């Protein structure tokens, strides 16, 4: 059985002011093509389908069209859980209609998907809160999936029925997962866990959450350790962290598939992937990370010359850039105009001042005998650590001249 694992689509997300919708359309198409080319039998989307609780109409439209295409007319079950960026009620709301198409949404932790048989497709043979068993006609064994969408600790306690409010999140999830695994997940089927949480190998390195991501890890209280995962699970499909990685700490793979696009400059240089899992009952899984090629590459570039910056920008048109410009004077409007006209993907321009390391320690002496332009120049240098350029001086002189005429 082949399972395609993807996550953190963040449909509707912008990078500062820049819309990523056209890139998202391309990468969603690429994911659909991967599912078709690799003959995937099941697709799991491990949360953060949208970027906000109230996504734009175009993002909602793109989600439903993509998921419908992934189902291959109901022959391929698509399991999509809510992440911390998603409204769980919004994810659950289209459930009855979506199920008829082969899309299985899990927004809240207490969702029970009823038994159903898709015409000319698969069948849900058993289900419970946080669990589904699916029988595909091409296999003589089922796939069992434990589903835990994102929820804060209090919501998990409410939905999963913890009486002791002091009970730790790890204990709560471990008990819930173990109950479902012991009840349903023997070695005669494929057993998968999918969740949208901050998971870590016990004693392992703290993994950084992406810039701009709503944090799940507040101190150590919200870390879920991989030793909570039942031994019956052959693969854990994670969402939340945007870099592909196998977290470890369990006898089977515990994998973040990565986001399909780089959504912040902290992700610049990351290869984005989906994961193809090859699995059968009672055997170790094989999984392959498949690189995604769509979307603009993110770059952090630094230049000390406007000419060098413009040359690079013209040579690299299809990317998004955080541009650091080093100078010892203010840039002119003409310089900035050249920069912006050379590229449509400049998100940030960061000016950096050249200065001596001892400059901040020196207390400047003010020469009160000089003319007003000299005084202005000294003030400008003390405030901005740069010499004013000719454009700034011309503007200052214009203001001084205008004031003199009025007097």
List the helices and strands and how they pair.
Blueprint: E1 2-6, E2 14-15, E3 18-19, H1 21-37, E4 42-46, H2 57-70, E5 78-81, H3 88-92, H4 95-101, E6 103-106, E7 116-117, E8 123-128, E9 131-135, E10 143-148, H5 153-160, H6 169-184, E11 190-196, E12 199-200, E13 224-225, E14 235-239, E15 245-246, E16 254-256, E17 273-278, E18 286-291, E19 297-303, H7 306-315, E20 319-327, H8 333-341, E21 346-353, H9 372-384, H10 390-406
Parallel strand pairs: 1-4, 4-5, 5-6, 10-11, 11-14, 12-13, 14-16, 19-20, 20-21
Antiparallel strand pairs: 1-17, 2-3, 7-8, 8-9, 9-10, 15-16, 17-18
Task: Give a short synopsis of this structure.
The protein has ten helices and 21 strands. With 407 residues, the chain is α/β, with parallel strands linked by helices.
Description:
With 407 residues, the chain is of the alpha/beta class. Helix content is 29%, strand content 24%. It is built from 10 helices and 21 strands. The protein has helices at 21-37, 57-70, 88-92, 95-101, 153-160, 169-184, 306-315, 333-341, 372-384, 390-406, and strands at 2-6, 14-15, 18-19, 42-46, 78-81, 103-106, 116-117, 123-128, 131-135, 143-148, 190-196, 199-200, 224-225, 235-239, 245-246, 254-256, 273-278, 286-291, 297-303, 319-327, 346-353. Strand 15 (245-246) and strand 16 form a beta hairpin. The longest helix has 17 residues, at 21-37.
Features:
alpha/beta; 29% helix; 6-stranded mixed sheet; elongated
Q: Which sheet architecture does the biggest sheet show? A: 8 strands, mixed
CA-atom Rg in angstroms: 27 Å
- For the termini, the CA-CA separation is 87 Å
- Estimate percent helicity: 25-40%
Which consecutive residue ranges, at least 5 long each, have pLDDT under 50?
none
Bin the strand percentage: 15-25%
Give the helix tally: 10
Derived from helix and strand composition plus strand pairing, the structural class reads alpha/beta
């Amino acid at each position: 059985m082949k399972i395609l694992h993807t996550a953190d689509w963040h449909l509707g997300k912008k990078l500062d002011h820049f819309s990523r919708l056209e890139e998202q359309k391309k990468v969603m198409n690429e994911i659909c093509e991967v599912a078709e080319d690799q003959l995937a039998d099941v697709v799991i989307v491990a949360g953060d389908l949208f970027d906000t609780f109230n996504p734009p109409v175009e993002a909602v439209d793109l989600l439903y069209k993509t998921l419908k295409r992934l189902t291959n007319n109901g022959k391929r079950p698509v399991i999509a859980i809510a992440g911390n960026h998603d409204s769980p009620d919004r994810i659950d709301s289209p459930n009855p209609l979506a199920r008829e198409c082969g899309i299985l949404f899990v927004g809240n932790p207490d969702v029970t998907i009823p038994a159903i048989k898709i015409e000319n497709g698969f069948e849900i043979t058993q289900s419970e809160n946080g669990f589904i068993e699916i029988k595909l006609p091409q296999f003589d064994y089922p796939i069992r999936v434990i589903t835990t969408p994102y929820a804060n600790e209090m919501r998990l306690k409410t939905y999963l029925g913890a009486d002791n409010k002091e009970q730790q999140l790890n204990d709560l999830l471990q008990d819930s997962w173990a109950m479902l695994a012991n009840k349903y997940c023997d070695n005669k089927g494929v057993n998968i866990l999918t969740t949208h949480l901050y998971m870590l190998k016990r004693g392992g390195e703290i993994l950084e959450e992406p810039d701009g991501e709503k944090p799940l890890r507040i101190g150590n209280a919200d870390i879920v350790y991989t030793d909570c995962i039942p031994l019956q699970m052959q693969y854990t499909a994670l969402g939340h962290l945007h870099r592909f990685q196998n977290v470890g700490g369990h006898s089977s793979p515990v994998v973040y598939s990565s986001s399909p696009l780089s959504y912040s400059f902290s992700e610049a240089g990351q290869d984005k992937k989906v994961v193809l899992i090859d699995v059968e009952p009672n055997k170790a899984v094989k999984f392959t990370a498949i690189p995604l090629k769509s979307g603009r590459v993110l770059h952090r570039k630094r230049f000390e010359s406007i000419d060098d910056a413009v040359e690079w920008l013209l040579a690299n048109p299809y990317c998004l850039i955080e541009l650091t410009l080093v100078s010892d004077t203010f840039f002119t409007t003409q310089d900035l105009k050249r920069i912006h006209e050379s590229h449509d993907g400049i998100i940030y321009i960061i000016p950096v001042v050249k200065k001596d390391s001892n400059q901040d320690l020196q207390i400047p002496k003010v020469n009160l005998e000089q003319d007003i332009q000299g005084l202005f120049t000294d003030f400008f240098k003390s405030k901005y650590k740069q010499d004013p350029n000719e454009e700034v001086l011309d503007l200052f002189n214009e203001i001084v001249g205008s004031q003199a005429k009025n007097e």
